[in-house]
Amino acid sequence: MKRFLLPLVVFLTVVGFLAVGLNLDPREVPSPLVGKPAPMFSLPRLDNPEKTISTKDMLGKVWLFNVWASWCGACRDEHPVLVNLSKSGAVPIYGMNYKDTRPEAQQWLEAGGNPYIASAMDADGRVGIDYGVYGVPETYVIDKAGVIAYKQIGPVTEEVLRNKILPLVKRLQTQ
Amino acid sequence: MKRIFLIRLITVFCFLLAVNTLIQTAWAKDAQPLQKDAVVEAQVQRLSEELRCLVCQNQTLADSHSELAEDLRQEIREMAAKGMSDQAIIDYLVARYGDFVRYRPPLKASTVLLWFGPFALLLAGAVGLFVMLRRREKMTVEPPLSVAEAHKVSELLNKES
Amino acid sequence: MIPEIGHFALILALLVAFIQGSFPLIGAARGNTVWMGLARPAARAQFFLISVAFICLAYAFATMDYSVTYVASNSNSKLPLQYRIAAVWGGHEGSLLLWAMILSIWTVAVSFFSKHLPDAMRARILGVMGLISIGFLLFMLTVSNPFERLIPAAMDGRDLNPLLQDPGMVFHPPMLYMGYVGFSVAFAFAIAALLGGELDAAWARWSRPWTTMAWVFLTTGIMAGSNWAYYELGWGGWWFWDAVENASFMPWLVGTALIHSLAVTEKRGSFKAWTVLLAICAFSLSLLGTFLVRSGVLTSVHAFATDPRRGLFILVFLVIVIGGSLALFAWRAPTVGRGGKFDVVSRESFLLANNVLLAVAAISVLFGTLYPLFLDALGLGKISVGPPYFDTVFAPLMAPALFLMGIGPIARWKQAALPELAKRLRWAFGVSIATAIVLPLLLGHWTPMIGLGLFLAFWVFGTSVSLIYQRLRGSGQSLMTRIKSPSRSWWGMVIAHLGIAVFTLGVTVVKGFESEIAVRMQPGDVAHLAGFDFTFEGVTEIEGPNYSASRGQIRITKNGVERTVLAPEKRVYTVQNMPMTEAGISPSFIHDLYASLGEPLDSGAWSVRIYHKPMVEWIWVGCLMMAFGGLLALSDRRYRLKNRSKTVVQGNDAEVSA
Predict the structure, then answer these.
(1) What is the rounded distance in angstroms from the CA atom of residue C336 to the CA atom of residue C334?
(2) pTM to 2 decimal places
(3) Is B98 in Cβ contact with C381 (below 8 Å)?
C-alpha cells in the first residue's frame, strides 16, 4: 500500500527545505551585477565638488567601493573596520555618499575618520539604483578590468573582511 | 486721527478678506491630478503594482511609502515618459536588482514547475479521480451489516450516557 | 507577583498536559477505564490553569506593568485600555498563549460535549489534544516566555504597533485562532479513529459538527482580516496573497474540502481514508502556518519578530505531530474498508471532484508560497511570488469548483443521470450566460475575467434559486411550513453556496469596475470620480490619546445634492514616531467611496487619493453568509443532544439532507 506513504514522503521533503530555510535570509537580495562590469558613473567629489570621480580612473587596479551615508546607523558599525583597513593599505577604498548632504557627510567623516581615498556624491541616488543599492551600507569588490567580483550587503565586519574580502582581493591583485 | 486710521485699516482688511473668500468660493477649482501625464501615470501605476519594494516586508512599489520606493517610482516615471515599453522597464530593474523585484515570476527553466505545476496537478487529480470512480463503479457491493452489527451501530449512535 | 503566578500556572498546565497526553492514550490501548477517565478532568484542569495564565498576562497589560518584557515591548501608558488588552496577542509570546488558551477552550468543550462517544474514542481524542498542548506550553516555557521579567523595569512601553490599534485587532486574531486551532478537534478525531481502528460513518457523524464550527470561525476570522486590511491600510486592497494570509487560507480550503468529504463519508461510508487524510492535512496546515509566521523563513507584513531557535523548535514539533500522524495514516489507512458503491455520475463524485479541486488549490497556494524558499535553498536564485502569480493560477482552479457547485446539490446520491441534470439546469445556465454578456456591456466595460466571474456568480445564484424553487414548490401547505420542511443542514448548504455567489460577484465587480484618481487638492478644490464630486474642505489638526493627526474633510455631492462627508486622517503615533493613514470611507451596498490623505504639499494643498469601489462590501457580506450557512447546518436536528435518542442515521437517497 505504498500510495498511503506518499503524504508522509511529501511532508518530509517540505520539512527538509524548511530546515535549510532556517539558515537563509529571505530579505537578502543578491546582486545580479556580480561578474558583470561595474556601471559607469562620473560624480562630483565630496571634498571638492568642482572635480569629478569616475569609474574610468579606477581601471587597472583592484578597489573597494563602499556605499555609505551619515544618516545610516549600520555604517557607523562598520566604519572602524574600514578605517583600519585603509590604514593597512591592503586595498584602496573609494566611497559613495548616498542620498546625503555635503555638510553632514563631511562632518561624519571628520568625526569617525576618513578611510576613503575619495568619496563620490550621489545626492539623488541614481547611481545607487544603477548599482542595485537597496540598503546602506553595501560594499563592492571591483577588479582591474572594472568587473564586480563580490558584493557585501550590510556592514563589513572583521570576519567578512578576513574570510571573504581580503582573500578575494589578494587573488584579484595577482591576476 | 488715530481712530480714523484704525477704521480704515479694519475696512481694508475686511475687504481683502471678502475678496479672498469670494475668489475661493466663486472660482472653486477642479483638483489637478498629481502627475501631469495620465497615460504615463497609468503605466507607472500598472508597473508599480507588479514590482516589489526591496526594503519593505512584502509590499508593492505602488503601496510603499519608503524612500527607495519613491525613487524607483520616479525612475519608472522617467522611463515611461521616454516611451519605454513595460518589458523594457522591467528588464532595466531586473538587470539591477534581479528577479526578486518582480512579483510575477518570469518563466524560466527554474520556474516552469511553478507555473505549470498547479495545472499539471489538476490534470493528474482529474484523471486519478475518474480512474478511481470507474474502478469503484465496477466493484462488488459490500455485504450488508449483520443483525448484530446493525444493532451495535444504532446503539453507538443513540448512546446517551 | 501576578506574572509569576501566571508563569507557574503555565508550568502546572504543562504537567497536566503530560498526564492528559499519556494516560488516556495508553489506557485506551489497554482498556484501562481509570486511566481513560483521567482525560476529562485533565482537560478541565488545563483549561483552568491556562485561563489563569491568560488573565495574569491581561492583568499585567491592564495595570501597565513594564517590569514584564512582553508588556514593555507591546504597550504604552497612553494606549487605550481596549488595545492594551488586545496587545496580549499583539506579539509572538502572547499570541502563543492565545493559541494555547484557545486550544484548551476547544479541548474543554470536547470534554463536555462527548457523552455520546465511546469511552476509548473520547480518551484518545482528548489525549491527542493534550499532546498538542504539550508542544505549545513547552514552546512558551522554553524559548517564548510571555512572563519574562525586565529588570530594571522600563519607564514606559514601546507601544503596540499603530497598525494594530484598531477594533479589528480585538476581533480578528481570536476569531482566526478559534478557526484554525479548532481544526485540531477534527485532527484528534481522525487520529483517534486511526488508533482505534473504528473508522466508519458514525465517526464522520460525530466529527462533522466540530469541523463545521471551526470552519465557521475561520471563515469569519479571514473575513475580519480582509475587511480590516481594506479600511486600515489606506489603499483599498483586501487580499495580498501574503505568506501569512495564505497560511490561514490553506486550512480554509482544505477545511472546506473536509466538510464536503465528511458529507460523503457520513452518508455513504465512502472515502474514509481520504477524509481522515484531509482532517490531518487541515490541522497540519494550521501548524505549518504557525511555523511560517514565526520562524523567519518567509517575509511577511504579518510576521512576528523572528528567531531561528524558535523556528527550529516548531519545526521539530511539526515533524513529530504531522510526521507522526502521516506515518500512522500510512500504517492504518490500508486496513480501512471501502464504503458504498456509486456511479461515475452521482452526488458522491461531484463532491469528490470538489475535493480534488480544493486540494489542488490548497497545494498550489502552498507551492507558490514556498517556491522562493525552494529555489533559494537549492541555490537557484531569489525570486518573488506575489499577487500576479496567485491571481493567474487560483482563478482557473476555482472556476470549475464554482461550476460544480451548481450541479452537485441537485444530483442524486449513488446514481445520477446527466441528461436529467442538464434539463434541470437549463434555466440557470441561460440566465448566467446572458447576464455575463449583457451586464458588462451595459456598464461599459467587458473583459474575459469579468465575463467569467459574472457567469459563475449568476450560475450559482441561478442554480440555488432553482433548487429552492423545486424543493419548496406546491404541496398545498403554507409557505412557512414549506420553508421549514427541508432540514437546517440543507438550508445551511444553500445559504453558504449563495454566500459564495455573493462573494464572487463582489470580487468580479470590484476588480473589473473600480477606479481611482490621485489629485492635488487645495481647500475648495473639487475632484470628480464616478459621477460624484469630492470637495476638499481643508485639514484640521487634532490630538488623539496617543497620536496627533491631520484630519481632512471631504464633502461628497452628486448633482449638487450632498451625500456625505469623509474624514480621512494622517496620524503620527507619538511613541514609535510612526505615520499612519486612516482612510475616510462611505460604504453602501452599491459601492464604497474611499479617500485617503497623502502628503501635505505647498500652500495648504494635500495629495489625495480617491477610490470608487463598486460592490466591494459584497465580498464580506458573502463571507458572513457562508459563516451563517455553516452555523445553520450546525444547528441541524440530528446534532442536537436532546434529540439523540429519537434520531437514527438513515442512508437515504433523497435530497432532504445534505
Answers:
(1) 5
(2) 0.91
(3) yes
